[in-house]
Fold this protein.
Amino acid sequence: MVEADARLTIGDAATRFLSSLSPEERDTTQQEVQRFVRWYGWERPLSRLTPPEVANFAERIAASTQNPGPKLEPVRTFLLYAKRQKLTSTNMAAHLKLKKLGAKVAPPRRTGAPPPSLTTEGAEEMKRDLQAMQQERQVVVQQVRTAREDKDFRENAPLEAARERLSFLDSRIRSIEAALGGDVVDTKMVSARRAGLGSRVTISDPNGTSAIYTLVDPSEASLAKGKISITSPLGQALLSKKEGQDVEVKAPGGKLRYHLEAIAP
């Protein structure tokens, strides 16, 4: 086993972890682990990483995507590895969680706040999701009724599970219906001069690694689909920028710098 080392950096620990994986596992894990490392700084000592910072990372990912589970799981595995290899004295993975990971509901909007502006693609996708959830709700309602017929309510796990799922569906249906009540931005009409809602941007970091994102309302954000919220740190930095400009994003590990290569509607 590797002895704890106060000088070990987050980047070095991540390199050890990724080297321990098979090529297939590394392909599905590397991107999210490197995202975590960049956020807190490659050279930062692993021993200085705190539980609140790990929890804040989870919240940041959750704020930028409707399904944070797949994005956080590789980081969780990395932190568990660090504990098992005695690279950390505490299990930091325990702090990388949300109240209901993977079943995230969009945060409620303030009373009187205007509904979001969706892209045409996002609106169509939400309509499909709404239809699927309304159909599923009918099935879950029947499951609740069936589970209630079980007279032993002391350990009626099916009833509790069905109620939780119904509560989630009702919340998501209300959220989607509210979102669909807002404006729809025709991406074909989006300006290619400055980055804004609906813009498809190509950015690169100092290492030459490029990525393509679409700037969207928080209710439509999904990192897995390449859609980032205009309220996220990167989204805010990109808003109103022109092609060829550089942007900076403040992170605990220091400033992250990107170059705006192209803007397309």
Q: What stands out?
A: Residues 100-112 have pLDDT under 50 and may be disordered. Residues 118-184 form a domain with the Helix Hairpins fold (CATH 1.10.287.180).
